[in-house]
Amino acid sequence: MTSRLSIGKIVKSNSHVDYVCQVYNVGEVEHVPEPNDYAFGAFVVIEVDTNGGPSHRLIGIIYNTLLMNPEFGNLGPRLSPRTDVEIFSPDYLAETATLVGVFAVGWLDAQGMPRQGVPPLAATVNCPVTRLEEEELRRFHTDAAGRVQLHYAPLLLNQNNALVAPLLLTVIDRLTGLFPDRRSQLAIMRNNLAWKNIVQPAG
User: 5, 71, 132, 166 - which has most CB atoms within 10 Å?
Assistant: First the structure.
């Protein structure tokens, strides 16, 4: 299996399926992830530590971004330019962080077979988060009969989060590119979701 791009590490959870990942900064990894690597709707893998047991990897979708900046609200004069701070006070810069919210929507079992739904195991603090590759994304959304599947949609819709509807629309748009032969099926799903997104808030 090819090495996936490192995105960050888990630093917190809000529930069994809702995690917070801190994106790697300069100096933490060889290849620092680009903003497009952890964009809204990006799929990731959370490597779960099973203490020597069978490997277990959660599949998640990035749904939110938070920025941590200790300089916010600091109106005092800057004593040193940022380039000097990078050299003499690197710990200060390390306090800035980009955090992304990740909904776990499935997992890969010990044989690497994809499963959709609530994962049986939970991630722990410092579990590494990597990018899910295109072919893995295709396999995750293909059922045994070769049809496109989106069984985790009800799980997301029950999260009571305003970002879920646009998140699912983003996912469906991406799947349309991966499964051009299922374009009509995905278009129906997208239209139904878009209609509910308009009608339900109004009601």
Answer: 132
> How many other β-carbons are positioned within 10 Å of the β-carbon of residue 189?
19
Residue type, 31: H
117 residue type, one letter:
G
Cβ contacts of 92 within 8 Å, gap of 6 or more: 70, 85
Q: What are 36-62's pLDDT values in tens digits? A: 999 999 999 999 987 776 678 999 999
The Cα angle at residue 106 between residues 132 and 17, in degrees rounded to 5 = 105
pLDDT in tens, 178-201: 999 999 999 999 998 888 777 665
* Residue 43: closest CA among 120, 2, 104: 104
132 and 37 in contact (C-beta within 8 Å)? no
Q: Which letter does DSSP use for residue 34 in this model? A: P
Residue holding tokens 């047991």? 53
- Concatenate the DSSP letters of all residues of 139-160 into one string: HHTB-TTS-B--TTHHHHHTT-
Q: What is the pLDDT of residue 34?
A: 95
